Amino acid sequence: MGMFEGKVALVTGGASGIGVAAALRFAEEGAAVVVADLNEAGAEAIAAAIRAKGGRARAIRCDVASAADNDAMVAAAKQDFGRLDAAFLNAGAYAQTGFEESGTATFDNMVAINLKGAWLGLQSVLPALERGGAAVVTASTSGVIGLNVAAAYSAAKHGVIGLVRSTSQSFAARGLRVNAICPGPVATAILGVAEQAPIQPADTLALPDYGGVLLPQHIAEVALFLASPRSGGINGQSHVVDAGYLASYPPMPE
Question: With b meaning 16 or more CB within 10 Å and e meaning fewer, what string describes 220-236?
């Protein structure tokens, strides 16, 4: 019996990187999974991979900056699987432009996807989650410290952390929880890593170097923990997952 046996999980940004790892791991732990992504074909490929292993999954196209799309993905979970127990609001976008080089279009895009997307996602899942359920939002270490080379992205991720803190009482009032993960560098397309790392047995997952690049699964495992009853005492918090990169100053030399 997996820790999500009989439950239903929703993963946004589920067609790549951290979202793929989370969708596959939720399925391995027994959940039916709704894989949501703007890339519908990519989401369907992950859902098909889950079904090929005997799991339950469906894909849905979702622009997280759209309130209607957020409502539709939640409705899909209810329609296909009857309930929703965990929501990993992971979808995001990155723009590497400093403050002086960033126009309003870049700022608006970063806020729309990273912050407004989280806001809309939380509004959609709050009334839908089963009591005892949880939402997890992907923030960033750039939401904890500034990031000169991606000022608009960093500002939006700071907002995500504030959003999670500010909504924790609303979630608690319904017997739910909400938390954020702040990943450090992860081997995804943002770092130019095109190939998706294979899923490893969770108990033998490779240990990253101190301050080194993490695998998407390192973040996914934390998301599963925060979405499960095992983390029942944690609500409204942001969790840095960066292999120690921000733990001391100056950072460990190369």
Answer: bbbbbbbbbeebeeebb
